[in-house]
Design goal:
Layout (H helix, E strand, L loop, with lengths): L12 E4 L8 E8 L4 E4 L4 E6 L8 E6 L2 E2 L3 E5 L4 E3 L1 E5 L5 E5 L10
Antiparallel strand pairs: 1-2, 1-7, 2-3, 3-6, 4-5, 7-8, 9-10
Bound molecules: zinc ion (ZN).
The site of zinc ion has 8 residues, from loops.
Amino acid sequence: MLAMKSHLKKGDTVAVISGKEKCKTGKVLQLLTKKNGVIVEGLNMVKRHMKAKNNEPGGIVEKEAYIHISNVLLYCTKCSKPVRSRLATLENGDKQRNCVKCGSSLENK
Ligand SMILES: [Zn+2]
């Protein structure tokens, strides 16, 4: 499976645009490039059975499952909605992702 090109980074705030978590936002905790997925804090929670180990009791824990990157977009706090990003090159050569609607930076600073 080919990895889809994604502009998402760890720490980005994203909004879910389809699926059961639609319209929710959260912070990207992890990128799963091979699966084209992202783990978003507090979203798409699933119950997992954990085995007991190292004196820790086993049991059922809730954990984030990945969301396919085609189901999330960067979230613009100025527009208050999910937006597409445009890559801009700054004077110092750094790349920055800007909101296509309002032009503000979507970088997590
Ligand atoms: Zn915007």
